[in-house]
Specification:
Elements: H1 7-28, H2 39-50, H3 55-62, H4 66-84, H5 92-116, H6 120-124, H7 129-133, H8 143-151, H9 157-162, H10 165-168, H11 176-188
Length: about 200
C-alpha cells in the first residue's frame, strides 16, 4: 500500500532531488573546483551523488567511520550551499534550502564552540580542525582504552588533549601499556597533551 506524502515531505524530496541534480551538474561540467573543496571532499561527494554509493560503501572505501563520512558530506554540502545562498532568488525551494543550510550552520557552530574552548596554545598544536573533532571511536584504540576514555567523558581528540597526561594512569582500565598506546597516538599525530 502506497503512503500519501504531505506537501512538506514532497517539498523535501523535491529539494533533495534538486540538490542531487545540481551536484551532478557541477561534476559533469567540472565546475565543482570553483567551490574550492578539498580533493577528499570532492571524491566523497562524487561517490555519493554521481556514482550513488551509500555512506557505508564510501566509509569502507576510505577506511574511516561512517559518522566521519557523514560529517564530511555535510561539510561539503554546507560549503557548496553557503557559497550559493547569496545567489539564490526567493522561491519556495529556497525556503527548504535555507532550512537545510541553517541546520548545517548550527552543526558547524557547535563544532566551533568546542574548538573555542581550547586555549590558544593548544590550538596552535593542531594541524587541522578535523583532528580536534575526530571521535575517539575513529581511532584504533583497544576496547579497554576506548571504554576508559569514554567513561572519563573523553569523546574527541580535542577532549583527550585537554586531559592531563599524569591523570590518564588514574583512569580505570588504563595500564602502563594502554597509557603508552595513547601517548604514541598523540605523538604520531604531532599533537601535545597537557603535562
Amino acid at each position: 500500500m502506497k503512503s500519501i506524502k504531505t506537501e512538506s515531505e514532497a517539498g523535501e524530496d523535491t529539494g533533495l532531488e534538486d540538490a542531487k541534480k545540481f551536484l551532478l551538474w557541477l561534476f559533469e561540467n567540472n565546475a565543482i573546483e570553483t567551490f574550492h573543496l578539498s580533493p577528499r571532499k570532492q571524491d566523497i561527494l562524487k561517490l555519493r551523488w554521481k556514482h550513488h554509493f551509500s555512506v557505508k560503501q564510501i566509509a569502507r572505501k576510505f577506511g574511516i567511520h561512517e559518522k566521519r563520512i557523514q560529517q564530511l558530506l555535510n561539510g561539503a554540502i554546507f560549503s557548496v550551499a553557503y557559497r550559493l545562498r547569496d545567489k539564490l532568488s526567493a522561491s519556495a525551494d529556497v525556503d527548504a534550502l535555507k532550512a537545510k543550510i541553517k541546520k548545517l550552520e548550527n552543526e558547524n557552530a557547535a563544532y566551533k564552540e568546542r574548538f573555542a574552548l581550547l586555549s590558544n596554545a593548544d590550538k596552535k598544536n593542531f594541524r587541522s580542525l578535523d583532528k580536534v573533532l575526530m571521535s575517539i571511536e575513529d581511532i584504533n584504540f583497544p576496547v579497554v582504552v576506548y571504554n576508559s576514555l569514554y567513561k572519563a567523558g573523553i569523546r574527541t581528540v580535542g577532549d583527550l588533549l585537554q586531559f592531563k597526561k599524569s591523570s590518564l594512569l588514574f583512569l580505570e582500565g588504563i595500564s602502563v601499556k594502554n597509557y603508552e598506546i595513547i601517548l604514541e597516538f598523540v605523538s604520531k599525530n604531532g599533537l601535545k597533551m597537557k603535562a
